[in-house]
Specification:
36% of the residues lie in helices and 31% in strands. It is of the alpha/beta class and 160 residues long.
């Protein structure tokens, strides 16, 4: 015994499985089990290929609506000049206002790795200057010849 539902089914209710299959066959549709744990199980008479197509379409719409996280990278040298620093700071502010994450990093070329403390100071100063727009998600970390840091936008009430 199964409970049959569907838009184009005349005798909706609890009927034997064989009769439900015959009804689906007469309508040239498929009998699909919707809720197997119900008592009695619920089946729907639908076009299964059309159902699968609609499910895929819904999933695609959901994926399209999800927010994509954008990460903008800003490169510094260990001895970055004040003018360059301010120029990159202005860009980082714009990125954070647009809702993107900012990943500033200091790239150490050749023997400049001995200035790693300078690089860390530079990144911490950068984070401090962006304090009102973003929060530090990852503190400065040395990975090979790069010292990276991650700053995400701060969400303000009423405005993103």
């Amino acid at each position: 015994m199964v409970r049959v539902v569907g838009e184009n089914v005349s005798n909706v209710g609890i009927i034997p499985l064989r009769q439900a299959l015959e009804i689906a066959d007469d309508l040239e549709l498929d009998l699909v089990e919707i809720s197997p744990k119900a008592d009695p199980p619920v089946c729907k008479i639908i076009d299964y290929q059309k159902f699968l197509y609609q499910q895929k379409k819904k999933q695609k719409e959901i994926r399209a609506k999800t927010a994509k996280i954008v990460v903008k990278e800003i490169r510094f040298g260990p001895n970055t000049d004040d003018h360059d620093y301010n120029f990159k700071l202005k860009h980082a502010k714009k990125f954070l206002e647009d809702g993107a994450r900012v990943k500033p990093y200091v790239f150490f070329k050749g023997r400049s790795i001995i200035y790693s403390e300078q690089g860390e100071i530079l990144l911490l100063r950068f984070a401090q200057d962006l304090e009102e727009l973003g929060k530090v998600e990852q503190m400065p970390k040395l990975e090979g010849k790069r010292m990276t840091m991650l700053i995400s936008p701060r969400v303000v009430k009423g405005k993103k």
